[in-house]
Amino acid sequence: MAPVLTSPLVSTQWLADHLGADELVVLDASVHTSGTGLATTWRAADDTYAERGHVPGARYADLLDDFSAPDGDVPFTRPSAERFESAARRLGVTNTSTVVVYDGGVGQWSARLWWIFRSFGFESVAVLDGGFTKWRDEGRPVRIGSLARSAQAPASDAFLAAEERPLWVDHDRVRRATTGVEPAALVLAADDDALGADHAPVIPGSTAIPVGSLVDPDTNAYLKGHALEAAFAEVIGSEEIVTYCGIGTAACVDALALTVLGHDRVQVYDGSLIDWWRREPESVAS
């Protein structure tokens, strides 16, 4: 029987206690990033997964390729249901699995994959609080070397995605929020360093709540209780909240934190500022 989740976050102790459990699938969703702003580039981090090591039994989930749309207009465009199903199946995920995702950063990649799973109706998924950084710093076991990426489940256990849920918004929805036609609190999750020193204006009316303000710098884990609530004080009372960043990954960290706080009307702007800037050329030129 798969372990039961009670929160979108699981602790390193929880994962250590459940490693090797039936139907537990652990995924490393790390991505390499270099550059800032529009000059940012990304590549899969399967090399460091093997060389730096990973949680024992974890498989590498390629968020940049397998869990994104290859023909998307911007990087990390969310995948179709069919592409998502195929990628999940190759990693051994079934509809009765419990999935725990982590990465080697502040959690933007694992939160993005968590949000994708949830958007297709899969709720038995959580993010490792503190990620690989906290796991490693606590001296927990690390496996070096690659684990076969393909762990195709038997045909009888084939993974099927549900109909996509309305957890994403597009440019038109965000535009309606900025004009007041369809109000929503707009939350910018990107740190200034990620956007670059000379970036174009962000979306009008936004509240900046960067990822770095949501995690404990000593442990890499999310803030707890009142401290997390305080970080969202300016927007937590809003009926609907839209999070965004540069490309829609850090935005998922804020979305996860808001979900932990019990806010049930949170959406992520897929494509985020890269999409906004290409559709709002006057904002780039200003």
Provide a concise account of the structure shown.
This protein has 286 residues and is an alpha/beta fold. The protein has helices spanning 12-18, 46-51, 81-90, 108-119, 131-137, 171-179, 192-195, 225-231, 250-260, 272-279, 281-285, and strands spanning 9-10, 24-28, 31-34, 41-44, 59-60, 98-102, 125-128, 168-169, 185-188, 206-208, 241-244, 266-269. It folds into 2 domains: 9-157, Oxidized Rhodanese, domain 1 (3-Layer(aba) Sandwich); 168-285, Rhodanese-like domain (Oxidized Rhodanese, domain 1).
Description of the molecule:
With 286 residues, the protein is α/β, with parallel strands linked by helices. The protein has 2 domains: 9-157, 3-Layer(aba) Sandwich (Oxidized Rhodanese, domain 1), CATH 3.40.250; 168-285, 3-Layer(aba) Sandwich (Oxidized Rhodanese, domain 1). The protein has helices at residues 12-18, 46-51, 81-90, 108-119, 131-137, 171-179, 192-195, 225-231, 250-260, 272-279, 281-285; strands spanning 9-10, 24-28, 31-34, 41-44, 59-60, 98-102, 125-128, 168-169, 185-188, 206-208, 241-244, 266-269. The chain has a 5-stranded parallel β-sheet with strand order 1-7-6-2-5. Strands 8-12-11-9-10 form a 5-stranded parallel β-sheet. Helix 4 (108-119) crosses helix 9 (250-260). It is globular and about 50 Å long. 43% of the residues are buried.
Catalogue the unreliable spans.
none
Principal-axes geometry comes out as globular
Rg for CA atoms: 18 Å
The DSSP helix count reads 11
**Number of folding domains?**
2
CATH architecture of the largest domain: 3-Layer(aba) Sandwich
Distance between the termini: 57 Å
Strand-residue proportion: 15-25%
CATH topology annotation of the largest domain: Oxidized Rhodanese, domain 1
By CATH reckoning, the class of the largest domain would read: Alpha Beta
The whole-number mean of residue pLDDT values reads 93
The count of strands amounts to 12
In this structure, how is the largest beta sheet organized?
5 strands, parallel
| H and E order | EHEEEHEHEHEHEHEHEHEHEHH
Q: CATH superfamily of the largest domain, please?
A: Rhodanese-like domain
Structural class: alpha/beta
Strand neighbour order, sheet with most strands: 1-7-6-2-5
* Fraction of residues in H or I helices: 25-40%
Keywords: Repeat, Transferase
Domain Rhodanese: 20-144, 203-285
InterPro entries: Rhodanese-like_dom, Rhodanese-like_dom_sf, TST/MPST-like
Protein name: Rhodanese domain-containing protein
